[in-house]
Design goal:
The structure holds two protein chains of two kinds. By secondary structure, chain A is an all-beta fold. Chain A has strands at 3-5, 9-13, 18-25, 31-37, 44-49, 53-57, 60-65, 70-75, 84-92, 97-100, 104-109. Chain A has no helices and eleven strands. In chain A, a hairpin with a 4-residue loop joins β9 (84-92) and β10 (97-100). Classes of the chains: A mainly beta, B mainly beta.
């Protein structure tokens, strides 16, 4: 079967660092995406990993270990505007469709 | 700037009505997708299309159909709306299938009464 797990909710403090984990079991793997979704808005692309290792993009970094079926999104120097849901999605199978996790709701507190 | 638009932000329909949700993208993307998003269930793929007049079933196609007559437009059709189809519907497009991010529209909040 196909399964993607991520924590439902997390809380962090402004200026701190937070790590959001994602574990997956899918039939086929062609890459892992992270999206950010503010309440009432569309998801927006954050990062893409297809090889093992860390991808850094400003305050956001994403890590992938294919052998462990594991990824994390690291957010540094948290700002209030980072309060949002973070969606982990795995692309795979013959059709390369995306399978989404249920998302992690991050609340950044002053 | 990349843009995916959806015909309505909010829609209220009655049980049994036929419902059309329209999606248009201006990026000349090959691939288009329809998802629904429900609390605790995340985004689930209903249908997708790799080319004009082509369609593929996603994970939850029952009760839905789609139409793609032009490259830029992908329509989702609820043949006979039911209350369990009350949801947020999101359209997305991508340049190609492998390794390319999907761009999402703003969503249509559909309520079926």
């Amino acid at each position: 079967g196909q399964n993607i797990d991520q924590p439902t909710e997390m809380t962090a403090t402004e200026g701190a660092i937070v790590q959001i984990n994602c574990t997956y079991q899918t039939s086929g793997f062609n890459g892992l995406f992270w999206y950010q979704q503010h309440a009432g808005e569309a998801p927006t692309f954050l990062s893409y990993n297809v090889l093992d290792g860390l991808e850094e993009k400003g305050r956001f970094s994403s890590f992938l270990s294919r052998s462990k079926g594991y990824s994390y999104l690291l957010l540094k120097e948290l700002q209030m505007k980072d309060s949002a849901s973070y969606l982990c999605a795995v692309q795979g199978g013959a059709t390369n469709k995306l399978i989404f996790g249920t998302g992690t709701l991050l609340a950044v507190q002053p | 700037d990349v843009k995916v638009t959806q015909s309505s932000r909010y829609l209220v329909k009655r049980t049994g009505e036929k419902v059309f949700l329209e999606c248009v993208q201006d990026m000349d993307h090959e691939n288009m997708f329809w998802y629904r998003q429900d609390p605790g269930l995340g985004l689930r793929l209903i249908y997708f299309s790799y080319d004009v007049k082509m369609k593929e079933k996603g994970d939850i196609p029952e009760g839905y159909s789609v139409s793609r007559e032009k490259k830029e437009r992908f329509s989702l059709i609820l043949e006979s709306a039911s209350t369990n189809q009350t949801s947020m519907y999101l359209c997305a497009s991508s340049q190609e299938t492998g390794g390319y991010e999907q761009y999402f529209g703003p969503g249509t909040r559909l309520t079926v009464t």
